[in-house]
Design goal:
This protein is α/β, with parallel strands linked by helices and 309 residues long. Helices cover 46% and strands 11% of the residues. The structure holds zinc ion.
Length: 309
């Protein structure tokens, strides 16, 4: 069995393109043609699927590999998921975030692949987050780029580039859609910049450590109950450290999220006389909103919790 690495795959496509021009060859594509004339994109989880939809518009059919309302960190792809993935024209994902997705992509030779970790400028998770996580993941890179609107813009540009490469006939449409999307993401970044500029406090206490890039971008400090992986159980020492941080910083709000049990956050809030509020890490599609609306709700929750002007 020959495994196509992304580099080999792109060389293969380039070779085919050359042959097609010089020999008039057809049928040399390593991708699958779709019946409905759209490009079939498999995105590993919600924020990437949302970006692909915004940029692809009606020229693409986007499927999220991780189902709605499922926590993506440890999602195990089923054999049916892998079969569906093998039929995609383009797979868009972040290596190192979902081990099961990494394994599936390594096995497949058909679809083209856009891997986003370098363009997302992923950084090593803070040592505190890794320790709380207890994770032995190979990279220990923090995957949560999508909560930083500036990183979202870089990833959006890369997805547009991949779509245009796969489907040059619609490149102008993808470029136009990207332009409109970048304007909205720029406006979102400005809203965060302005909305979080003057606040009484700057520490946010979150359920899992999803908000580091966002916190760093806008001058906040994140204290998380769990580490990078929401399933990691905080130790008594971790909880004592969070409680101390709540008391020392005058924190008024413990943030919870919809896909993780709020039990620990609720107990901490009761113990420290604070409130709880939802801060959505957007790892699955928001209940009613899309990415932009949920990011605006998050900003509103942050402004309330931090008493911003
Ligand atoms: Zn997460």
């Amino acid at each position: 069995m020959i495994l196509m690495t992304p580099l080999f795959r792109s060389r293969f496509i380039a070779l085919c393109a050359t042959l097609a021009v010089t020999l008039g060859a057809v049928g040399c594509s390593s991708t699958n043609s779709s019946d409905d004339g759209t490009l079939h994109v498999s995105a590993s989880f919600y924020p990437i699927a949302w970006l692909s939809e915004q940029i692809g518009g009606d020229r693409v059919t986007v499927t999220s590999v991780t189902p709605t309302n499922v926590e993506p960190h440890d999602y195990e792809l089923s054999p049916a998921d892998v079969t569906a993935l093998s039929k995609a024209d383009l797979i868009v994902y972040v290596a190192g975030f979902q081990p099961s997705m990494d394994d599936a992509v390594d096995q497949l030779t058909g679809p083209s692949v856009a891997e986003l970790s370098s363009v997302a400028d992923l950084q090593k998770a803070s040592s505190a987050a890794v320790e709380a996580d207890g994770s032995t993941s190979e990279s220990n890179l923090d995957p949560h780029f999508w909560l930083d609107p500036v990183r979202m813009q870089a990833v959006a540009a890369e997805i547009e580039r991949s779509l245009a490469e796969q489907d040059p006939d619609n490149a102008a449409t993808y470029e136009k859609n990207l332009g409109a999307l970048q304007q909205r993401l720029t406006a979102l970044d400005s809203a965060y910049e302005t909305g979080l500029a003057t606040c009484e406090r700057d520490t946010i206490v979150t359920s899992h450590a999803a908000f580091s890039y966002m916190a760093n971008r806008y001058g906040l400090t994140q204290v998380s109950i769990s580490g990078i992986d929401p399933e990691s159980e905080p130790s008594p020492a971790d909880l004592a450290a969070v409680k101390k941080a709540v008391e020392e910083t005058g924190t008024t709000t413990i943030f919870t999220e919809s896909l993780v049990s709020p039990k620990t956050a609720n107990a901490l809030a009761a113990e420290t006389g604070t409130e709880t509020a939802v801060l959505d890490p957007m790892e699955s599609q928001p209940q009613e909103d899309d990415y932009l609306a949920a990011m605006e709700s998050n900003l509103s929750a942050l402004r309330t919790a931090l008493s911003c002007q």
